[in-house]
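quick one: pyridoxal-5'-phosphate bound model?
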Amino acid sequence: MNILDRDRLTRYIESLRAKASTSIGYPFAQGFDYSELYSLLTFPLINLGDPFIEGNYGVNSFAFETEVISFFADLFRAPKHDVSGYVTSGGSESNLYSLYIARELLPDALVYYSTATHYSVPKSVRLLNMKSVLIPTSENGEIDYACLRHELDKNNRQPAIIVANIGTTMTEAKDDVPIIKQALYEAKITSHYIHCDSALSGTYLPLLTSDPTFDFKHGADSIACSGHKFIGSPIPCGVVIVKKSNRDRVAERISYIGSIDTTITGSRNGLNPVILWYAIKTQAKDRLREKAKVCLSLASYTENKLRDAGFDAWRNHQSITVVFSKPGELICRKWQLATQGEQAHLICMPGISIDTIDEFLRDMIKDKSVENCERRLTTA
Ligand SMILES: *Cc1c(COP(=O)(O)O)cnc(C)c1O
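yep, here:
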């Protein structure tokens, strides 16, 4: 490599450092240290197919991947002898895989999901050529149960696949699985499948309560989670947990057409299972729980400070996402805020410090006083 190229790389890394220090709008944890795993970068570490079936290619991390699956299966209280899943490329693939399994089980079903659902769900529905029913949400972003009930009643001769959001993208609202189950029961739909998209909140909610209402005990048939969000990873990744019996029924069909691979992609990233395994082993549930509590209290601090300064900030229950009215363009760009319509949010992920939040608050207050000044000038 010549000097110019090397210099370019150095400057690029420096610029990332600067960008990362003002990244508070997207749910990606920072501050992790996987340097003990660096020598893994010298191998073509690739997982082919299902982690529970050892194939011919030996440079894999299946042993770590199955441990990661066990950890999440345990977290989500999956039935002990009816668990399968794998480490995916992210929450999106986890959603696609779950909907794929659901469609193979119930080919004639309608997919119900709310307008606050992550874009990977409608995308998967289109890819899988499924029919869907869009349900509005309440103001906090939670699915409107009365509307859901109404639509279920209307279509109660067809099986139902429901995608419950356990932490919506914009406001981190959680759909209530027991209420959804009750709606299915009242609409007399016995043939149903519930998928929980818990990409962001799934990793820490079960650590904060003894009875998370979105898990397998409460009727979930599959759960999707991202690995690079709360846990943190330099490479995007996710986890999907499904019931083995459901997966086996899909696998049977696939073997019929000549393949036993049950995952979505071909070669899968073998580094990610080791990264997640390392994170779980070094932090265990206790450290992860402590981290979640720190995030929650930082979110509460941010919400209160914004309100004290006259902003209309709010937060859903047990949420690390703080929602407020979209500020000026410069603030949105500097702090990389995610916006939708007139709403913006920031997410108090692991690795964000109180100093960072304080700097953001100072910017917000400055922005507001400039805005007030301009308003007075234009109305004067
Ligand atoms: C982030 C997110 C996804 C997508 O996950 P990726 O890991 O980015 O693919 C899906 N659903 C929700 C609710 C999310 O927050």
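Residues 90-92, 118, 120, 165, 167, 169, 197, 199-200, 226, 236, 238 surround pyridoxal-5'-phosphate (CB under 6 Å).
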